[in-house]
Amino acid sequence: MNSPRPSGLPALRRPVLIAAFGGWNDAGDAATSAVEHLALTWDATDLREIDADDFYDYQSNRPTIAHVSGVTRRISWPVTSVSYAKLSDSDRDVVFVLGPEPNLRWRTFCSTIVDLADALGVELVVTLGALLDDSPHTRPVPVSASAETSEAAARFGLSPSTYDGPTGITGVLQDAFVRHGVPSISLWAAVPHYIAHPPNPKATLALLRRLEPIVGLPVDYGRLEQQAADWQEDVDEMMSDDDDMSAYVRDLEERVDSDDATGDKMVEVDGDALAAEFEKYLRRRSEDSD
User: What InterPro entries does UniProt report for this protein, alphabetically (predicted)?
Assistant: First the structure.
């Protein structure tokens, strides 16, 4: 990426772009929470917003109304924001892209981001995601890391991406960067489908821990480690009050711990199918107890 930098853009040192999008790509809000954590701890500066009118269907991503000072009502529109952080204790800076997954014109949306990244001199792209999986909450969160090209895989010691199937905006954005000659890496955390509601600080923490050695930047986890521990304790307590749920989790643990467990390898899982499987499991348990 050697294009001249337009006026008004910051001069960044070997920047890495880190992106996450809400919705389909963001089970438990784990990925967007990771970017929000980094932007906060690294004191990111707002750069620009991508015009929402061009890319969002407001019947799907509706604006929200909030009261300001209990009197004035203000509308907040869905928006993709771009910010940056200059890190004094590192030789590289960071660009953040954060927003809900767009509904329209994905290729134009991605081209807009690639053009801006080009002007900023971005050298590496990392997209973060989280998917629903049948992993138990009691075990370490699996995080898959893959590179979009064999060259990037060799450079960062990762496996080339082998996923075939439907993709979200993260996959389309990665492809756009690869076509532009920029190395692109994806990290995906597995979120237990039976506790899919956000937040999931344990999955957010796992993504950040996997990200840190790849980008070579020290991450301040702040209170996130304690929040993850509290989350684990709360879920354990909830499960202990429900014999069926406890038995279900034990079954998942046995599957993960078995000799043929897949370890770090994750497979895209249909959340609706998992929910249906869980309901059948509970019905079967109920019938066995009658």
Answer: Proteasome_assmbl_chaperone_2, PSMG2_sf, Rv2714-like
Read off φ and ψ for residue 198, nearest 5 degrees: -80, 160
Domain around 49? 16-288
Does the residue 145 lie in any domain?
Answer: yes
CA distance 66 to 47: 24
Query: Is 3 inside any structural domain?
Result: no
pTM above 0.70, yes or no: yes
| Residue 112 placed within a domain | yes
Q: What is the phi-psi region of residue 30: left when phi exceeds 0, alpha when psi lies from -120 to 50, beta otherwise?
A: alpha
Q: Is 255 helix (H, G, I), strand (E, B) or coil?
A: helix
State how far the Cα of 128 lies from the Cα of 145, in Å rounded to an integer. 10
Any domain includes 56: yes
pLDDT, one tens digit per residue, over 102-111 is: 999 999 999 9
Domain count, the chain: 1
Segment 204-236, tens digit of pLDDT = 999 999 999 999 999 999 999 999 999 999 999
50-to-57, 79, 135, 231 alpha-carbon distances in Å: 14, 7, 36, 34
Reported as a single tens digit per residue, the pLDDT across 4-38 is 556 589 999 999 999 999 998 999 999 999 999 99
Coil vs helix vs strand at 220: coil
Q: Beta 80-85 vs 45-50: how paired, if at all?
A: antiparallel
Residue given tokens 């996923």 in the structure block: 163
Cα–chain center distance at 196: 14
